[in-house]
Every structure is written in structure tokens, then in C-alpha cells.
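ok so I'm stuck.
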Amino acid sequence: MIWGFSLFSASNVPYAQVSTEKNFNHAYNKRIGARDARQYLGPGEDKITITGTLVPFVTGGRLALQTFEIQAASGLAFPLIESNGTTHGFYVIESMTTSETHQIADGRPKVIEYTINFKREGDDNLDYSKIAVGMKGALGL
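replied:
not stuck anymore, here's the structure
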């Protein structure tokens, strides 16, 4: 799976679980003597949560996760695409959580567990030209 320029892979940032949440918007109108009337308004928020464990001596470590942080700090939505070509849409990172355990003598962790929460951007807010310009600034070019 890839989000923008950041790659999830077995050798770099492997993931163990992908959870999705899709919401659907409805409006309700009160009626006298009857149940509320409901009307479907369209799709709501889509969220994807990816969790995994890094073992820096085998896989990527802190630096591998920093590529996700740099993109997230740009504030831009990037495409989230599975390795089989399935495109989920454009997502932003809403939050990232890491937990480092089993430190060696110099303080580096043997194990890093991470959770990345993605939130889908509305299709009407997308400006593809901002991705290149935003990443140019994030990379200091």
C-alpha cells in the first residue's frame, strides 16, 4: 500500500491490520403522531486505520515513519492505493501514534508499534497541483 510518496512494504513499513469505517449521512424530520421521516443525504466520513510493528534491525525504523510525518505536516490529501491497484481515494493523516519498546544500550528501540489514522478528503476539495508544490516545500527543494 502507498499513501502519496510513503510506501508500506514488508521490508520498510509492514502493516498487520487495516480497519475501515464508512459513514452515511441521513437527515431526520420530526412528525406529529408518526416516526421521524428520514432522508439519505449522501456519503459521510470514511476513515482507515493502519497498524503495524517495526523491528528496526529487520524493517524500517523511526526514519521510515518520518516520511509519513513529513507528508502529513504538508496538510495535503494524497491518494491511498493498495498494491493490487485498488484506489481508496485521497486521504489526510488525522493522527499517528507510536510506541517504542525493548530499548538497547544507546536508547534505540528494538520494536516500534504504530497506528496511523487516515481520513478521506472530500472529492470537491482536491487540487492535484498542490501536491507537487506542497511536497517541494516539505522536502526543502
